[in-house]
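Hello forum,

I keep getting stuck at the same step: I have a sequence, I want structure tokens, and every attempt I make locally crashes halfway through. Rather than fight my setup again tonight, could one of you with a working pipeline run this one for me? It's a single chain of 316 residues.
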Amino acid sequence: MHDLVIVGAGPAGMTAAIYAQRYGIQATLVDPSPGGVMVSNSCIENYPGLFKKSGHEIAAAMQEQARELGAKFIKDKVTEIHKIPEGFKLTLAGSPLIQTRTIIIATGLSKRQFTAKNSERFTGNGNGIHTSINDLKSFTDLEVAVVGGGDATAIVAVTLARVAKAVHIICRTPELTVKPRNLDKLRAEPKIHPILDQTVAECTGSDRLEAVKLSNGQTLPVQALVVETGYEPRLTFQAPGLNLKTDPEGYLQVDDGMATSEPGIFAAGDLTTGSNREHHIVNAVSEGAISSSSAKAFLRQKLSEPLRGSDTSPFF
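Reply #2:
Ran it on my machine without issues. Output:
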């Protein structure tokens, strides 16, 4: 029987594991691809003390720290969670089931699906439609479209402009919703061309993407398209019989201690209603630390022996 299983190994989940280990709680993280959505960001500018580091670098450092403290990682996917008398039973896609007294859900967000006509033909396998720009060199000298209108879109467009021939931002609203700093970067880059109040109606090409048709009938020749259409809560498992309440948009409802409506299950990070829905790494790590503290208090009530860890001061 585990004391704590953390479902999801992004910044919230790994921070929860780091704090759990310091509290003397053995943490086990389950995630098929640790790091979360931040690994797709090539340059993070708003995490204090780590200016202009890539998401991959930050994720690697967090994982190394968690492992150094004794946290265990299982690269697998949780498919079901059931309540049992001692706590919870987790079914995994390719590993033996796990029983645990407490759970922290930190599965984060996933990108909204891109549903333009024929888009599935060109998604993956280097066929033209991408969900990240990890391999920046592959966009060299190409005409690229970026679908979206927020800060993530702006960051991707500015990064692509370093290597691409041209970058077209296709935004469905009349204006971009971009912070002033990122807007200044867009305006300063002559390769970037916003196309506002339009959507991609169809993707065309033979073996690879060659053009997109916009909702106004215009055909835009592009050899690559990057999807930045926003994110939605990602619950990767079924939870029959559990009382996990969500808001109308699917975000897990939590209290100030990151407790969900199901006793013994906590949540942290982008998929929660906490932190005023500010989806930043700094908010995720804060919620991860809080959820771990709440799990510690819950376990103290269940276990006969007190937990022993290094973090006994309220200042750490």
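The domain at 2-111+231-302 is CATH 3.50.50.60 (FAD/NAD(P)-binding domain). If your local run keeps crashing, start a new thread with the error log.
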